[in-house]
């Protein structure tokens, strides 16, 4: 980052309301916050907030994406890290260890991987009966990225008999913990006490014509349609082969998903990358 560029960004931050605004957005993480909610939390008029949002946007520190009628603002983490790295480069003649705690703090801030490891993202997988695809996705994500992602699953019409036995058998055989897996309604994740979802991914073409609940204006949604194992026909071996293919397709998508630089992408770019994973050919490129 050039000196003039850094000076412009620091100048944009040189005001109390803007610093409070940036802290609110940092607290929200990559998912961002609707402008109306920011105004409420800061207790400032919409016109005043708009002025300060524009200043931070022009400095490249935040960006907005439209979701329905709302504008969602999120921190541009890559830009903010570059600004802090600009300071770190000059720390004690390029030897941050000489700066003690300050040098170590700046060195840590400039490492993107550390930031990404510190973040935990909630992901909800949906399918109609929550008995196969979404159950497999929940188990897979729990195993692939524990600590970085918290996986959940639900359905619009959950199976009263629970997950398909052949799905649980496959997951057990592949070393997954199935003790906590159950079929449940998506209503469990819409109340005030429910965990806030960062991502909601539908794994079927349509949820039997039903409209998904509102999981919040900042939730990133996507659709990765996959065949329904409950509708597989043929011999036991043939159905097992098809089930393995669904599992493998989910695993490829999720391995690509957890590799996304979530902390450094704005909402629009992140939504586009999530949508790309619906294409099995994109996953293997």
Automatic annotation (TrEMBL):
<dbReference type="InterPro" id="IPR036390">
    <property type="entry name" value="WH_DNA-bd_sf"/>
</dbReference>
<dbReference type="Pfam" id="PF12840">
    <property type="entry name" value="HTH_20"/>
</dbReference>
<dbReference type="Pfam" id="PF01451">
    <property type="entry name" value="LMWPc"/>
</dbReference>
<dbReference type="GO" id="GO:0046685">
    <property type="term" value="P:response to arsenic-containing substance"/>
</dbReference>
<keyword id="KW-0059">Arsenical resistance</keyword>
<dbReference type="InterPro" id="IPR023485">
    <property type="entry name" value="Ptyr_pPase"/>
</dbReference>
<dbReference type="GO" id="GO:0003700">
    <property type="term" value="F:DNA-binding transcription factor activity"/>
</dbReference>
<dbReference type="InterPro" id="IPR001845">
    <property type="entry name" value="HTH_ArsR_DNA-bd_dom"/>
</dbReference>
<protein>
    <submittedName>
        <fullName>Protein-tyrosine-phosphatase</fullName>
    </submittedName>
</protein>
<dbReference type="InterPro" id="IPR036196">
    <property type="entry name" value="Ptyr_pPase_sf"/>
</dbReference>
<dbReference type="InterPro" id="IPR011991">
    <property type="entry name" value="ArsR-like_HTH"/>
</dbReference>
<feature type="domain" description="HTH arsR-type">
    <location>
        <begin position="1"/>
        <end position="95"/>
    </location>
</feature>
<dbReference type="InterPro" id="IPR036388">
    <property type="entry name" value="WH-like_DNA-bd_sf"/>
</dbReference>
